[in-house]
UniProtKB/TrEMBL annotation:
Residue stretches spanning the membrane: none
UniProt name for this protein: AB hydrolase-1 domain-containing protein
SUPFAM superfamilies given in the database record: alpha/beta-Hydrolases (SSF53474)
All copies of domain AB hydrolase-1, residue ranges: 40-314
């Protein structure tokens, strides 16, 4: 897998840096002149980082190789990082104290993705104008919500389909997720801020009593590398997405409801594939089911229930890659 890193500098209209990575394989070059070839755009969940998608992408690319001429044509995949997470959180540490960015939100993540995608031709050349590609949006949790918001931002970006994984959405009003919000905020505020070593973090996260013990080992390794950074002042490691920033994301008053309005429109305009976890360890099942209630008028190209909890990309990236592969091929079956 070929990986390239990109950094978009701050601008007056968006005064924080935006980082992204481009993933492809050498044989994807043969699709460069194919207008139907897909460019994937991926957004991640709260408290993670852009590299958390690497195991899923690696396994997806393996499926594409095995599929040969019958596989969907892919040009590349872009993963855009939420600016207060991962490497971006470290780069933007001081800028995130500015008014309007101290309380980061789902909308701000969508804005970051929009700015990155709509300015791509200015820093990669007109031949790499991502806006002109056949775009497929893939988002998990926070990233799913931000992907939905992205659909109405101007100037508009045209996506051919969306794959929405465990969205933090409630069609029944904000109170339906209030217990979850309280739990997530309480947990984030109790996080250990400083660690003596990455191995100390690994040992803690591998505790069988923690959800992180279920993660794919590749995801855990990437978390240790990209979700932590060295704090020279304290001579310890700290989380790149600070507990304060994580709490701000969870307290976003509109983050779980406003994207439903976008979904109501989008699902009639393009195929939306919904991927959910069977284990209701975060979002209650009835909240998920309200999204595809027949009385809502919403429709989905497919609905897939997977044997996992909320953190599907972290727990079962290989199985998720197969679901994404099916959705990209255009003929997935509903797995209710």
């Amino acid at each position: 897998m070929v990986v390239e890193s990109f950094l978009l500098d701050p601008a007056p209209e968006y005064p924080v840096s935006i980082t992204a990575k481009r993933y492809c394989e050498e044989h994807f070059a043969s699709n460069a002149n194919n207008p139907a070839a897909l460019t994937l755009v991926l957004l991640h969940s709260t408290s993670f980082h852009k590299e958390t998608w690497e195991p899923t992408l690696s396994d997806l690319f393996t499926l594409l190789r095995k599929g040969g001429d019958n596989a969907p044509a892919i040009r590349e995949a872009w993963v855009i990082e939420c600016p207060n997470h991962g490497v971006s959180g470290q780069i933007n540490k001081d800028r995130l104290m500015a008014e309007g960015f101290r309380d980061f939100s789902c909308f701000r993540y969508a804005e970051a993705a929009h700015r990155f995608l709509t300015t791509s031709s200015s820093w990669t050349g007109p031949q790499n104008d991502i806006r002109k590609r056949n775009l497929v949006g893939i988002g998990h949790s926070l990233g799913a919500n931000a992907m939905l918001i992205l659909q109405h931002l101007e100037p508009s970006l045209v996506f051919s389909k969306l794959i929405i994984i465990e969205p933090m959405l409630t069609a029944a009003g904000p109170l339906a997720l209030e217990p979850l919000r309280h739990h997530l905020v309480t947990r984030a505020r109790k996080r250990i801020k400083l660690w003596d070593s990455r191995e100390a973090v690994r040992t803690a996260y591998n505790n069988p009593q923690r959800r992180a013990a279920k993660w794919d080992m590749r995801v855990t390794n990437l978390f240790m590398e990209y979700a932590l950074h060295w704090n020279g002042e304290h001579q310890k490691y700290e989380l790149s997405c600070t507990p304060e920033q994580e709490v701000a994301m969870y307290l976003d008053p509109d983050g779980s409801t406003k994207p439903v309005e976008d979904l109501n429109l989008i699902c009639h305009r393009l195929p939306v594939h919904l991927v959910l976890g069977k284990t209701p360890d975060f979002v209650p099942r009835e909240v998920h089911e309200a999204l595809f209630d027949s009385r809502s008028g919403r429709r989905f190209a497919s609905i897939t229930w997977m044997d996992a909890g909320h953190l599907i990309p972290q727990e079962i990236p290989t199985k998720l890659s197969a679901v994404i592969y099916d959705a990209l091929g255009g003929n997935p079956s509903s797995r209710l």
